[in-house]
Amino acid sequence: MPPTTHRRKITQKELKAPDEFTTFVDSARDFLVNNLTQVLVSTAVVVAAGAIVIGVYYYERHRDTVAAAQFYDAITALNAGQNKQAETQFKQLADEEPGRRLGRLARFYLASAYIADGDLPDARDSLVAFLAEERDPLFRSLGLTNLAVVYERMADWKKAAGAYQQAAADPGPEQVSAELGVARMLARSGDKQGAIDAYRGFLAAHPFAQQRQGVMESLALLGAPAEIAPPSAAAGAPQPVVIH
Question: Are 204 and 196 within 8 A, CB to CB?
Fold first, then answer.
């Protein structure tokens, strides 16, 4: 008996499969051809955007490096007592880079150069501009203290007291001297009782402070019970603060 041959019937789905694949490839090709310009433009936009981002990043890093070099040169001049040169360099940095941290800090040090050069009005203006934007508690405290020093040297006791009071409100290395500055300015402006209260408040808040003896002597000069001593012993001439 001859062998029986079984033929598998090909389904309609199998017959359509090549046609569907061919149709997909043709559709993809047609889409690419018909939209080639748009695809090329989109690719170019993505590439250009990436290039811009990378370019901006390296440009900003370059500007950071340049600003750091300018800041270092200006600090070096200030420390060497070359005040005019320091003023020029700090002012240039502050004007050219107002949005950078070093550009803002340049105004603080520019004021220090002005103070060292005896230019109190420009020092005042530089510190006011610096404090208008500064948010760091340490530098705000130092800036306010220096501004108070400038006002005190200009014999503007009221504004000096206000600046000292703001500096004393925030913890920092100048808080104690700022508290004494408030009392000193009250005394110089003629507010005797206010100065007495401020000095007594200082003694209550800082019973073991090194300045205690000087404060007691200042109280005595104001007529409060204490030992009498020269005013300079209580609180000497204020000095601006500079961080190196």
Answer: no
The whole-angstrom separation of Cα 226 and Cα 138 is 35
Dist CA 116 CA 170 (whole Å): 26
What's the predicted TM-score (pTM) here? 0.69
Amino acid at position 184, single letter:
R
Q: 170 burial class (0-12, 13-18, 19+ CB within 10 angstroms)?
A: middle
pLDDT in tens, 23-37: 666 676 666 666 667
The torsion angles phi and psi of 174, rounded to 5 degrees, stand at -105, 10
pLDDT, tens digit (0-9, with 9 covering 90-100), for 153-163: 999 999 999 99
Instruction: Give the other-Cβ count within 10 Å of 220's Cβ.
Output: 15
* CA dihedral sign of residues 118, 121, 126, 131: positive
With beta carbons less than 8 A apart as the criterion, state whether 109 and 86 touch: yes
Angle at 29 between CA 23 and CA 33, to 5 degrees: 140
Handedness of CA 165, 168, 173, 174 (dihedral sign): positive
